[in-house]
Structure prediction request, 254 residues.
Amino acid sequence: MTEAIEFAGRGAVVIPTYNEKDNIRPVTAGVRTAVPGADLLIVDDNSPDGTGKIADELAAADKHIHVLHRPAKAGLGAAYVTGFQAALDRGYDTIVEMDADGSHQPEDLPRLLAALTSADMVLGSRWMPGGKTLNWPKSREFLSRAGNSYARIMLGIPLRDITGGYRAYRASALGKIGLEDVQSVGYCFQIDLVRRAVQAGLEVVEVPITFVERTHGASKMSKAIVREALWRVTRWGIAGRLRRPQIPASDVAM
Prediction:
């Protein structure tokens, strides 16, 4: 049974959707049970399978559910920026992001929100002690671990899972990281926000979660998404190294 919890202040859970008609009802039901005082902001990218229509039906039956319709699929990052900006404009204090495919478990919300009382951003981590994945193919696990390791080395960020999409933010943190300048489209968006938060001097922590592979619908992962992440992380890493001050030769101990 999911433990009911409360957000600090007004809370919103942002859930982007594209062709998730088989998942959106159980996901929203789980979140509503876990955080009954929070609102859900569903951001639908004109899903051809009718997900947006189902979301509208859910919103009509529950005042805590709201739907933002975008004209077409324009990437995960853009969908989250739309949802985050709407949440900020509506004055929410705490904002959570989670996937609509059932991979993120509502019962993990208590750990994310509890950690947010002493942090600015909380990452749900699959790769720290206590975190785990269920029913994931080895190829996806390898890709995720390798991607996190590469980003950690290139960006100098000592966190284990900066590519995951189950997170909690203080509204003040999102206001400091420059959402209006985010250009990342795919899952690289997740890395981008952690990078920006660390550069802004915000407190970013991780808590373990259980990630469950979807049972309905198709994964949105693609080669183009992987290429974008590799290109952007490499570019950010090189740019960061070029900006670091060099130690004058006279200061180097002989």
The first strand starts at residue 11 and ends at 17.
